[in-house]
Amino acid sequence: MANNSLVVQQAQAAIDQLKYEVAQELGIQLSPTGYNGHLATRDAGAIGGNITKRLVQIGEQQLTGSRR
Questions:
Q1: Helix or strand or coil: residue 61?
Q2: How many Å apart are CA 20 and CA 56, to the nearest integer?
Q3: Confidence of residue 2 (pLDDT cuts 50, 70, 90)
Q4: Which residues, including other chains, have CB under 8 Å from residue 15's CB and lie 6 or more apart?
Q5: Contact 49, 26 (CB under 8 A)
Q6: DSSP characters for 6-51?
Q7: Residue 34 — left, alpha, or beta (φ > 0 → left; ψ -120 to 50 → alpha)?
Q8: Does the structure show a pLDDT above 70 at 1?
């Protein structure tokens, strides 16, 4: 079973903002109430995959000290 708790609890607002930014870029409408039961699995996966990709890019930039 996956553990979905954040290591740094203060990061929740940044993660939420990133989720809405990615969804908007992909043209996927998310509910402002936080419940997205209507969302297709494909759309949820696209959002999660793009969030992961972006977080990896941020981590790589921090490790190398570069800015893009």
A1: helix
A2: 18
A3: low
A4: 6, 51
A5: no
A6: -SSGGGHHHHHHHHHHHHHHHT-PPPTTS--TTS-HHHHHHHHHHH
A7: left
A8: no
Segment 12-52, tens digit of pLDDT: 889 999 999 999 999 999 998 889 999 999 999 999 999 99
Q: Residue 50, exposed/middle/buried by CB under 10 A (0-12, 13-18, 19+)?
A: middle
Say how far apart CA 57 and CA 63 lie, in whole Å. 10
18-35 per-residue burial string, b: 16 or more CB within 10 A, e: under 16 = bbeebbeeeebebeeeee
- What is the C-alpha separation between 22 and 37, in angstroms, rounded? 18
